Amino acid sequence: MQAISEEKIQEIRNSADIVSIISNYIPLKMQGKNYFGVCPFHDDHKPSMSVSKERQLFKCFVCNKGGNVFNFVKDFENITYIEAVVKVANMVGIPISYTPIRKNDEKYKLDYEIMAFTTSIYQNNLNSKEGLEAKEYLAKRNITNDIIKEFKIGYALDDNKYLYNVLTKKNYNIDKLEELGLINKDGLTGYDKFQNRIMIPITNLDGEPVGFTGRIFHGEDTAKYINTKETTIYKKGHIIFNYYNALPYIREEKSAILVEGNMDAIRMYSSGVKNVLALMGTAITKEQIEILKKLRVPIILMLDNDNAGEIATNNIGDELIKNNLPIKVVRLSKAKDPDEYIVSYGIEAFVDTIKNSQSYLDYKLEYLKNNKNLTNTMELVSYIKDVLKLLDSTDNLTKEITLKKISDEYNLDYDMLKKEVNFKTEIKKDEIPQLKAKKNKYKVCVDNILYYLMSDSKYIKIFNKKLGFLKYVDERNLVNEIEYYIGLFGKINLADFLSYAEGVDSITNRVKDVVSNVTLEELDEDTFMDYLNILNQILMKENINEIREKINKSTDINEQIENINKQIDLAKKIIDKKKEV
Fold first, then answer.
1. How far is 265 from 246, CA to CA, in rounded Å?
2. Residue 392's pLDDT is what?
3. Distance, CA of 94 to CA of 86 (rounded, Å)
């Protein structure tokens, strides 16, 4: 955490308006003095997340997620806290020098080095005399020089020893080159895996080349594409093509378009549709689904317009729905894929198809009709059963609308259809049984007191004068760190202290616990004093009970007298405290 100084983190947070930053992720609307939006951290249908411009904090009143601007970015993007600090710094234009340390960086350092160097070789080849024809081919497909540079597109020479010779002259081990899928071994020597092909680097989520797609451009009677085999740093199922480049545009457009091939993605990107990702195939893995979930945006499936693409749309769509991702579908007509569609009909027509994407439910209702003769009674029954099964996982409103549509379309009794579907009983919030035990009164008081102490330095003085003690070690550790922080910076506010707490293991969890449990909008001394007085009475009562227990257990008359005197002293203190109140 302290790879970036606490002063620098404070500078970044003070420069980042939390309302502006969060507005880049979700819509916010002002209500009173705060802003509200639909919480992205639970299945929220009403704006339950409050964002305070004055205090630079956010808080969801349903799931209790809360914190400062870094906490929001961290949780929204599923990144580390320090990565969130760097991302926010970039958003507000504060230069920051920080290189995250990844797992296995040292272990695979050579692999990344070789792949980066090979990428530069292919790039140089494309700009040479030998690469002229390949570059002309790209130009005909409207792949500009800017796009070539952005995607680091290159060319593998029509020479089966060129890359082998360059890499071995740099003393890269031949076994390592084969392991990375760059050469094929032939005895003690080797030859290039890719020859006379346009080379498209496949990058990981951090934008580093880990593999290649080699594409023919002469129309040779051979495989159109050759991809790098899986290696130590390239696991196809863990990567989505163009993720690194597309990420800012996905945030901007608040959607991600998922296509099959990387050339489709490049063509769309070069045409201005930049929120595009490619699976490089017709299957999706659980790792890729997790990557898509982190985006927290609707996914628009735009797979090839053939039978394989239709099946893939259905299969991938079902998997995404199971994982609660919002999905839309575009099925291109009169063209096999996005690349062909843009060439044939232009970018404006293509953008219109995206705007007119259909919900996954509407797509699925049509898909279920495939290969069914709905004038045949038994096939119609089969179709209706499939639809009813599909509706089982949807919300009540969707069920209602769809059943009415089916009822009208096929002249079926609505009430009969409704009986076949499981409508969920929706319980109002105030009708939910209170199954959870009441919160511990001591903990409620302490959490609120700690919240005050982290929010303003004046409260630590009052605390030390009126109480000065908490029962448990984690609470005392937090109070000590608060005092230390105030000693360092002369003041304290919750937004800054949350950042500091991320770097102190002994208090991190307790601070998060307090922020989750406390929902104070206003802070005032009278309320703080109330919490202190209540806590003081709780502690005194506990002391009396402990002394009584000792009296009851003790058989020594002197010890009993001593404990009774202690009880009298405590009783006097309680009376004095009540007079103060």
1. 10
2. 81
3. 9
Residues 6+ apart with CB under 8 A from 61: 48, 49, 50, 519
Q: Are 48 and 31 in contact (CB under 8 A)?
A: no
State the sign of the Cα–Cα–Cα–Cα dihedral 240, 242, 245, 247: negative
pLDDT value for 560:
52
Place of tokens 């076949």: 420
Given a cut of 50, the residues of the chain with pLDDT beneath it are 1-2, 427-438, 574-575, 577-581
- Whether the Cβ atoms of residue 204 and residue 157 lie closer than 8 Å to each other: no
Start-to-end CA span in the chain (Å):
43
Q: What gap in Å lies between CA 227 and CA 224, rounded to an integer? A: 10
| Rounded Cα distance, 172 and 190, in Å | 13
pLDDT of residue 434: 38
Give the pLDDT of residue 95. Answer: 84
Tell me the CA distances in angstroms from 515 to 95, 443, 519, one per residue in order. Answer: 30, 13, 8
Rounded to the nearest 10 degrees, what angle do helices 262-270 and 338-355 cross at? 60
The pair of three-digit structure tokens given for residue 517, joined into one six-digit string? 């449990």
Task: Check if the beta carbon of residue 81 is closer than 8 Å to that of residue 1.
Answer: yes
Indicate the length of the chain as a whole number.
581
In this prediction the pTM is 0.72
Give the pLDDT of residue 103. 52
Cβ atoms within 10 Å of 192's Cβ, excluding its own: 22
* pLDDT at 556 (0 to 100): 54
What is the predicted pLDDT for the residue at 436?
Answer: 38
Are residues 470 and 448 in contact, defined by beta-carbon separation less than 8 angstroms? no
**Cβ atoms < 10 Å from Cβ of 358:** 14
Number of Cβ within a 10 Å radius of residue 467: 15
- Judge residue 256's burial from the number of C-beta atoms within 10 Å of its C-beta, 0-12 exposed, 13-18 middle, 19 or more buried: buried
Question: Which is nearest to 263 in space by CA: 276, 272, 251?
Answer: 276
For residue 206, how many C-alpha atoms fall within 13 Å in the half-sphere facing its CB?
14
Query: 232: part of which helix (H) or strand (E)?
Result: none
Q: Which H or E element spans position 30?
A: strand 29-31
- The contacts of residue 323 (CB under 8 Å, 6+ apart) are 289, 293
Identify the burial level of 558 via C-beta atoms within 10 angstroms of its C-beta, where 0-12 means exposed, 13-18 middle and 19 or more buried: exposed
Question: What pLDDT is recorded for position 559?
Answer: 56
Supply the pLDDT for residue 418: 87
